[in-house]
Amino acid sequence: MPWPRKTHKQFVVDIAKIHLGLSVVSQYTDSREPIVVMDENGIKYKVGSASLMAGHYPRMGTAINKTGGFKTKLAQIQPNLIVLGEYINNRVRVLVRDELGIEYLSSPDTLLGGSPPSILTATDRNKAFEIKSRLIHGDKYDYSKVNYKDATIKVKIGCPIHGYFMQFPADHSCTGCGCPKCGNINSVLNSFTGGWTKTSWIELCKNQNAEPKLYIIHCFN
Description:
Strand order of the largest sheet: 1-2-3
Order of helices and strands: HEEEHHEEEHHEEHHH
Shape: rod-shaped
Radius of gyration: 30 Å
Oligomer: single chain
């Protein structure tokens, strides 16, 4: 004797038990027909009834409005990102923009997983690096010679005092490292507490490949 066909009411009750927050929108007929369901974010999906009963939660690829659904979910996970492009599927990168104005072509799965887009996925890596670096260093350095490849390859940065130097991107834009020569001088100046003589000042400048300048100030009582 065949099993009795599940009614719409029975299907709704079963889905509510299997998938919390998922509601049935269209009429259930049988397990071979697709059905429309809606999640707690208001995103509607058209999926197989049997797939739902087997415990498979609807994926973004089954959303009736894929781009709209992707925007809704991403806004909850990474509210600083604006979706500019169209969502095709999880394998096709989508164009987004962050609060700094940097645009990225990133994997939808990566973004929905909570990982922020990296400079490697920026549409203009050099500009992205410059924008992030200026958040830390302001307008001190020149980034016109930067050729950003990846985090393991040093980039060329210009110091207004000592000229160009090579530095790992993350050291400069993330940890705040700047010109090594400026850093050496500041370190020496901060550590020297015994006062300066003409000889010690000239020696310091020579060690830093700088031209010593000595100003003599006459004080009149």
